[in-house]
Amino acid sequence: MHLYRLCKEIYSKDVLDGQGGLSAAGRWHSQGHRVVYCASSEALAVLELRVHLGSYVPRSRYVMHTIDVPDEVIAELPAEAIPLGWDAVPHTETSRAVGDKWLESARSGALRVPSIHSETDRTVLLNPVHSDFARVRLLAHRRYRFDCRLFGASEPLA
What we know:
This protein is of the alpha+beta class. About 20% of the residues lie in helices and about 30% in strands. It has helices at about 20-25, 40-55, 95-105; strands at about 1-10, 35-40, 60-70, 75, 110-115, 120-125, 135-145. The strands form two sheets. It has a four-stranded mixed sheet. The protein has a three-stranded antiparallel sheet with strand order 1-3-7. The longest helix is centred in the middle third of the chain and has 13 residues, at about 95-105. The protein is globular and about 45 Å long. It starts with a strand and ends in a 14-residue tail after the last strand.
């Protein structure tokens, strides 16, 4: 499966190390866990980053990464395991507990979970300390230019 991750260029060389999870919690993990969040489409990767930027208009350079993860490495979070309130804004312990349990169990190298932004696209969590992570490949990366209209800007962005 091809996955996508968008980040500032300065973080691009470490895009798969999962270090960000050590310093901040996310929807599907508590602070202190190495994890890499990816999107099942390029559009979802852009949308995920856009909502996290808030009113900030990006002037830094960004890079879109295409990542290959073998299908057999990816587990699907079963519908019955998705807790009520997983989609709370801001995210809560409800969804973090599910991701933490998965990371700690080391059941798979990747876990497909729902995206709060799309009914059809999925977020895929990668566990960089899992043995199957060696099968994850960065296929491509390229500079990404945002459409200025996403930010209400009238001039081209970085």
